[in-house]
Amino acid sequence: FHKAESHFSVAIQHNPRKAQYYLHRARSRQLLQNILGARLDVATVLLLNPKQPK
């Protein structure tokens, strides 16, 4: 999951407005027990796309 988190972090650097990248990184961070990081990513998803399904 470390590789996935890193992959999505790079993707976010290239396209920071793509909510899906934050959502996938949040899931990776959750599985890595980085709950604060996951919550921040989910908050970013909601800011970028308020109609994102829960």
UniProtKB/TrEMBL annotation:
Which Gene3D superfamilies would you find in this protein's record? Tetratricopeptide repeat domain
State the source organism's domain of life: Eukaryota
Q: Which named protein is this?
A: Uncharacterized protein
Q: Which organism is it from?
A: Lynx pardinus
